[in-house]
């Protein structure tokens, strides 16, 4: 696709690395798969989202100008639909996790240290706060109003379950890792270390590899 | 089946849930049923211990999750028949939720935003009847305004 996108120009500022459109979509797909298979909400990739939206708008403009019935236009439109699907699916996945774990997501964001990357984009943070307030109001008005006993507040942090970081995930190794410590499953076992060879695939508990997913050393599949 | 409409009062969402017989509502497209909880106890039952209170809170929250799903299934305008089964607080929650969602979607990207309640399935075929592109009428098909004709 990169060579047919002659009109595309990178409008990112100099401080960011330049990517071809193909690389950008590749990064979007990686972020999408990671988000789909990780039990918890991952770091937000706002830069990728913004660039992809720019590219989509650009492609749409090109399509408006092109001749109707042109074969290339049809192919480009199919590509636009594919990209829009992946982007929408990625954002939906994140929103679902935000809603599912909303007290914990907000707590994590509040207790984040200065300089640490944010898990929520500013817009997602606003959405999460509104969701929390809305749900809290509802529960107070409906579930608690008519109860004789004094259930003062519902502690949403305790009632809403946390993501299960011990769930198993499939991954493919992108950057070689040494001495990954695997926790024992039963009492008879002991912990042992494995090396992750580049290109190898593994089934392992998410908790063990969470930092590797964040750094991009492994790809969830 | 008892007519639970007569029991409906201001802010009586809780009462609807517990004092009516089962009223199961199935919607087309299998789009999730908004069920009123069955109560094995008599009308005007009031939870008066911790277990019943917790059950009430859980069933309220469970309904909320299903109402949330309605926004993604039906769009921002709910069919009247569904709205009838929601109490004032649930309607208020729904309105706030769809406002939050709309604000979020508008904020995506530089201009105009992105409607992520569309494109729910990966694209397979491109056009419908060769003159209306799928991406233009997806929502309308789900709402039943348009029909996908296969010839």
From TrEMBL, chain B:
Boundaries of every GINS subunit domain copy: 62-108
Coiled coil: none
Main location: nucleus
Described purpose of this protein according to its UniProt entry: Required for correct functioning of the GINS complex, a complex that plays an essential role in the initiation of DNA replication, and progression of DNA replication forks. GINS complex seems to bind preferentially to single-stranded DNA.
Family classification: Belongs to the GINS1/PSF1 family.
An annotated GO BP: DNA strand elongation involved in mitotic DNA replication
Keywords, comma-separated and alphabetical: DNA replication, Nucleus
Record lineage: Eukaryota, Metazoa, Chordata, Craniata, Vertebrata
Gene Ontology CC terms: GINS complex
Name of this chain's protein: DNA replication complex GINS protein PSF1
CDD domains assigned: GINS_A_psf1 (cd11710)
Subcellular location: Nucleus
Nucleus is among the record's keywords: yes
PANTHER family: DNA REPLICATION COMPLEX GINS PROTEIN PSF1, PARTNER OF SLD5
Species per Swiss-Prot/TrEMBL record: Polypterus senegalus
Subunit-structure text: Component of the GINS complex.
